[in-house]
Amino acid sequence: EVQLVESGGGLVQAGGSLRLSCLASGFTSDNIAIGWFRQAPGKEREGVSAINTLDGSTVYADSVQARFTISISNDNAKNTAYLQMNSLKPEDTAVYYCAALTRPFRIRVGLRANEYDYWGQGTQVTVSS
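RE: above sequence
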């Protein structure tokens, strides 16, 4: 059974940093893309960043470019994706979700939520001004 478990959310002041973690388990393939998405109250879910676990290719939303960094580690067939968030702004406040997809062909990472098959429960990030 595929599971995605996020952790690391919390309350931080503007300009501060947080690191989110997503433990992904249960995949039978190592050709996986893991993405981070966020949803603020009253707004649509938006893609933040994603990474291909095989070749390490990444993509970022313009709003987080140069402030957020996505990375991946692998331990005994479990992938953990990290989202290092620096220089946080109040507009970064949202519930952050980890999502994943696997395909039998090379994955070009993207930030379209409807392309992702598996989702975590979300973790709240609140940035105070």
